[in-house]
């Protein structure tokens, strides 16, 4: 005669099923977080590269049409997991091509002060997104009980990125462009003062040493022709 499972067995089964549901839900959440962070990172890196090209006069007027995606055919044949990356590239391409024309773009019709200011604002917005991504990664690692040293490393990287990108690559370049436009701006003096206020990081000594060279980033004292038209 077969014994009928008792209440304890049913409870153990229910507990096991509930545990599996929680594990699956957590796994799905992690995959979604990974996808969001990865897409935002690709978006930020691509936009940053486009803005830097625009600032240095190297962005083609038809840059949107020149955007392409990687061919994932061979990779998809090896693993269907690459479909995520293919879809992300396609979505990013569509997003960039459909964004409204900004004053910093070639031949957008803005005068150079307006184009430069538009570039500055867009660069800061892009950097803010990059810092938000790093913060999201730190949060995910903290919840995943990753060693605190790894979380601290990302936080330190976030601080360095904020200083280096904002003061040097955005504001320093912006002020050098004002100088190129004929405005009396001591952008190197401004930058030196800002860098002297940085924490004692290797980048601080490197930039301060480089600023002793009067030709340091002299290429920044430049305005693209397409901003002058």
Short description:
The protein is mostly helical. 71% of the residues lie in helices and 0% in strands.
Backbone structural class: mainly alpha
Count of separate structural domains: 1
- Helices and strands, in order, run as HHHHHHHHH
pLDDT averaged residue by residue: 84
- C-alpha termini separation: 95 Å
Written description of the protein model:
With 229 residues, the protein is mainly alpha-helical. The chain has one domain. Helix content is 71%, strand content 0%. It has helices at 7-55, 63-66, 73-78, 83-98, 112-143, 148-180, 187-196, 202-210, 225-228. The longest helix is centred in the N-terminal third of the chain and has 49 residues, at 7-55. The radius of gyration is 25 Å and the shape is extended. The mean pLDDT is 84.
Q: Key terms for this structure?
A:
9 helices; 0% strand
Topology:
Elements: H1 7-55, H2 63-66, H3 73-78, H4 83-98, H5 112-143, H6 148-180, H7 187-196, H8 202-210, H9 225-228
Helix pairs in contact: 1-4, 1-5, 5-6, 6-7
């Amino acid at each position: 005669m077969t014994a009928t499972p008792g209440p304890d067995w049913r409870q153990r089964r229910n507990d096991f099923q509930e545990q599996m549901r929680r594990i699956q839900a957590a796994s799905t959440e992690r995959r979604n977080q990974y996808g969001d962070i990865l897409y935002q990172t690709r978006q930020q890196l691509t936009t940053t590269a486009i803005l830097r090209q625009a600032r240095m006069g190297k962005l083609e007027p038809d840059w949107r049409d020149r955007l392409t995606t990687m061919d994932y055919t061979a990779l998809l044949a090896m693993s269907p997991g690459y479909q995520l990356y293919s879809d992300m590239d396609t979505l990013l391409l569509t997003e960039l091509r459909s964004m409204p024309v900004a004053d910093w773009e070639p031949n957008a019709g803005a005068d150079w002060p307006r184009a430069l200011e538009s570039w500055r604002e867009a660069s800061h917005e892009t950097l803010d997104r990059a810092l938000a991504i790093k913060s999201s990664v730190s949060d995910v690692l903290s919840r995943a009980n990753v060693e605190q040293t790894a979380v601290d490393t990302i936080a330190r990287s976030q601080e360095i990125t904020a200083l280096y990108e904002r003061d040097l690559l955005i504001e320093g370049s912006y002020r050098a462009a004002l100088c190129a436009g004929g405005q009396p701006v001591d952008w190197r003096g401004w930058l030196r003062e800002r860098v002297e206020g940085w924490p004692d990081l290797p980048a601080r000594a490197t930039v301060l040493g480089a600023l002793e060279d009067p030709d340091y980033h002299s290429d920044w004292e430049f305005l693209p022709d397409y901003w002058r038209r």
